[in-house]
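Holo prediction. Input below; ligand is zinc ion.
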Amino acid sequence: MAHHSEFPSSDIYTVPFYVFNRFPADIGLAIMTHCSPHDLVQLQMTSRSLYAFLGTHKHLWAAAQANVGLPPVPIVEAGGNRSAAACAVFIFTGGACTWCSKFTPAQPFSFVFRFRACSPSCLKLLLSDVSLYVDKSKTYEDFSWGRWLPRSKLHSPFNVYSKRDIKYADRERQQAINIDNHSSRRDPLGIPHRTVAQLNEMCLKRARSRDALTEHALRLVSWQTEYFKLKATVSRANYDFIKLMSAVEGKKAQGILRTPKGTALFQAFNRDLTKLTFTVWLENRALMFAQLGCMLDGVFPVGAVGRPNDKLRCSYCPRLIKVKGMADHVVDKHPDHDPDTIPFIQKRDEKHCPECPSSKRLYTKRGLKDHKLNKHSTILLSKE
Ligand SMILES: [Zn+2]
Ligand SMILES: [Zn+2]
Ligand SMILES: [Zn+2]
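Structure of the complex:
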């Protein structure tokens, strides 16, 4: 029986980014004009020299944006970090859900308010008046220090603001007042140190930038609609390609797509609206097959979670067991191990009783409490 002590990773198979440093500059440049904004962000992070190079060759960012149809980033007096790189990161590398702060690979869904949601329930909350303020009394429309607040009129006759923006503006203002009053109280949010006069000046700059930023945000909305359509088309073509190549090689497409390399390729090419090619397949098939072989042998990559019918190698003996039967197997054969924490198996809300090692029964938190009280509590007995 083959035993894989280590899951094959990309590092030993694929060409690392630093090869760019070895190319003559003009070849590097020629390659980079075909990059997506996401590629350039990745590239920028690989070395200090590439960071500097991409900083001075602004046209590469323009080309990358054009490659995925992104509208150019406006040049404004104030608006936070709105460089092409920051915009690419914001759109393509995922980020914290605006509601619950959990990381999500999802693109933002509101560019005016810079909202991102990790789930339908967070999305609902972000679109409700828990997060949005419909300004019926026109408080912020011409508010001396709120003129810059991003606003939307899309679904209402009134301006709609993000409550997060209003809260931030309030706290920023309060800190400036504290600073003017020589109070040492500082906002824990880490708001920049500004006096009221400095903040007023900043707010004026932001107000002057507001229209350009709103326009850019609206252009991003139409870009995104088009992008998702194109992405769906490219994804279908790439899926068909993987299905065809897998069939040619006698593998299952679903298996190939579940390997870390297969997943990464599929997602990267779809994201960059690029079709997978035979060359790409040839460059990556060895790694994908090695990974697939491992997974069919019941060894999964670090961090992966098995599906109920996946066969997994038991952590304590050489047997292959279906994910859904693994907990029972551990109870039966390895009573000294915890059946509730097994690698590659999703942790459940329901748990086994640690004091009944031969029981396969699962309890809810509440149920386990009751069970322990009934079966393992000595306090109850002593009362009688
Ligand atoms: Zn969330
Ligand atoms: Zn076992
Ligand atoms: Zn028990």
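The beta strands are 95-96, 103-104, 132-134, 151-152, 160-162, 311-313, 320-322. That is the main takeaway for now.
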